Task: structure prediction
Amino acid sequence: MTNETHDPLLRSWVESANSPGHDFPIQNLPFGVFRRAGSALAYRGGVAIGDCIVDLAAACERGVFDGLAAQAALLAARPSLNDLMAQGQKPCSALRLALSRALRDGSPQRAALEPVLLPQRQAEYTLPARIGDYTDFYTSIYHATAVGKLFRPDQPLLPNYRWLPVGYHGRSSSIAVSGQQFARPLGQRLAPNAQQPTMDRSLRLDYELELGVFVGAGNALGTRIGIEEAESHVFGLCLLNDWSARDLQAWEYQPLGPFLGKNFATTISPWVVTLEALAPYRSPWLRAAGEPQPLPYLDSAHLRAAGAIDIQLEAWIETASMRAAGQAATRLSHTSFRHAYWNIAQMLAHHTVNGCNLQAGDLLGTGTQSGPDSQEAGSLLELSRGGKQPLQLPNGELRSFLEDGDAITLRGYCEQPGAARVGLGEVCGRVLPALT
Result:
């Protein structure tokens, strides 16, 4: 539900937060973990406002907050957000309201808060939370169908897809914050018409345009999270790039699914945007006529009324040649999360229906987000038709898959008339040559 923090007329005394098109206006206030760049200081929690960060530990020392907001601020100021996440949405909402009031034009708390702001350009970031477990889903039917046509032309979409949110358990240890650089992965791949695989570097390295969902309050082992309460167990969303070695994946994924083709690197954005901040961008979640309707444990009136979120998602590429020439990155694709076949509440409800316990700080990936049009594909695998139709970049370079030195930036934001723009920032990562 919307409240006073969503008022599009609110303005902040942090002038950069009032700039048109800025990702972090006063209506957003996402959480992250940072420290001054190049320092040996301990990481600490903060909140983005405009091009600055509110240092929550310093704000607490100055007595800016009281009541439930003060309790939440102390938890949010720690080196990870897990303790805040574990408390559920109420304390976080109280802190967000207190920050909104303190950062508004004319606030008497400006004198206490202004000295504890750090420009974002002077900060470095770490993961927002200790990620105990990572599960990646497959919520875009457009992506699933397009990839299925490449891997299984006779049966692109398997029968279970329309009945349950398909997912697999990924590797949390290789998740890193934006700025991650990683070596091109090695593994087995089977060349066309070959009788046996070879051990070599991946030649079909790809990105995946995804959202990450941070779990808030968890559930005990042996219990389940019902669809009606699922969103109350979500802390917030980030951007996620689940890098994929398509040639390794194609050889290894049957019968047990992704392994070395996925576990070498996953990159997330540093800022976590709360579900509360995204409230103005909710819309009905509906299944098209003729599509199977979800089983009761995956269905609810609230889900039908407001289960979709219109988050615009973009992927951009900067090649080594572009970087050397000082050329700007170019956009590869643009889609929206509103096209997802399965939504966030259904991901949590299905994940726990067998009694699986989720914990604060666990990360769920939405899977690659693609839309109905070809320009809305969330991976090079789709954009290049499995490498058969290379993309020509503005500088003349061709790309079927990623080359060494390529950097991918994902961006996400919400905007519509009558509401303040809310952005997720960006997540960047770069491919390095394979290890020898």
Notes: The domain at 134-432 is CATH 3.90.850.10 (Fumarylacetoacetate hydrolase; domain 2). The first helix runs from residue 56 to 61.
